Amino acid sequence: MNRQLSLLTPSGHLTLGNLLGALRPMAARQDDAYYGLSDLHAMTSTHDPALLRARTTEMATLLLAAGLDRATLFLQSRVPAHTQLAYLLECTAYTGELNRMIQFKEKGRGNDSTRVSLYTYPVLMAADILLYRPTEVPVGADQRQHVELTRDLAIRFNNTYGAVFTVPAVVTPAAGARVMDLSDPTRKMSKSADAAGSVFLLDPPDVVRRKVARAVTDSDTGTDAVRADPDKPGVTNLLEILTACGGSADGLTTYGALKRSVTDAVVAELEPLQKRYAELAADPTYVDGVYRTGAERCREVTAPVLAAAEAAIGI
Ligand code: ADP
Ligand code: NA
């Protein structure tokens, strides 16, 4: 089976969308799986050090609480091979290639106080991937260009210095649950802390209730108003959340009833996770132990790749 590799950026709070779209499938695939928290990627724009550390710990603890305890869980900054290989790849990449990255164009180009790390982010991402030699990388549309760059860099390095890297195929991920923002169901639920339409995994029941109660629906008052329909994105989203959380829409005819069912299902889904989170968070040294074990396993896997790249490039 193909090695699993996935990095999450601790730039906000994990949401119900992350749980249904990422954490659940990750928990189902934990053999030969490397799941990282990319704290280095979280520093590519203005950041608060204490907040970064707190969010990273929160996210790691949530991943463990969600059952990700068999996979190798690691913190990117604790595996120095990532930045070491990134530099070798910076010596392989061209500025012309990075200038073409759409995400950089949208987020930072033309602003004199854009961090250099935002510009070189795709190169660090290439190192994140190539170190683990996955044969396939499933990516959503927003990261596709970066993985194409990863392939280009791997191929160029191999052709110039010798066959060091496995060139991964870019694959479209299996369509998983996609949870939309409750206040704007045309965009996906996001983990940025100020997103009013996001349900965060640590939201207490009353907060979940309030957010779901405020969810955008529509003005349909017909007896069949509660139905999935492309013209009813808010209602469709609530129905999908309800089903994904083990609830049923049978017999629901009003949006009020739908929202009560969604709230109950989401609260029931989050309750065991939050309980486990509280237990794990009670021991502040626990996550650090997980990082240490993770870093050791990552070092075993990545050291030969880094060593081969260094030897090939002449250092
Ligand atoms: P990042 O990639 O910066 O860590 P994201 O939160 O965008 O942050 O994505 C993390 C993972 O969670 C990805 O696998 C993504 O597909 C999934 N994910 C994020 N938001 C949603 C959502 N609203 N619905 C379903 N899956 C989501
Ligand atoms: Na993403």
UniProtKB/TrEMBL annotation:
Give any GO molecular function from the UniProt entry: tryptophan-tRNA ligase activity
The record's PROSITE patterns line, in alphabetical order, gives: AA_TRNA_LIGASE_I
List keywords of the entry alphabetically: Aminoacyl-tRNA synthetase, ATP-binding, Ligase, Nucleotide-binding, Protein biosynthesis
Keyword Protein biosynthesis present in the record's keywords: the answer is yes
EC category: ligase
The UniProt record lists the EC number as: 6.1.1.2
InterPro entries the UniProt entry points to = aa-tRNA-synth_I_CS, aa-tRNA-synth_Ic, Rossmann-like_a/b/a_fold, Trp-tRNA-ligase, Trp-tRNA_synthetase
The text of the family note is: Belongs to the class-I aminoacyl-tRNA synthetase family.
NCBIfam families to which the protein is assigned, alphabetical: trpS (TIGR00233)
**Know the name of this protein?**
Tryptophan--tRNA ligase
Organism of origin is: Nocardioides hankookensis
Taxonomic classification? Bacteria, Bacillati, Actinomycetota, Actinomycetes, Propionibacteriales
The gene name on file is: trpS
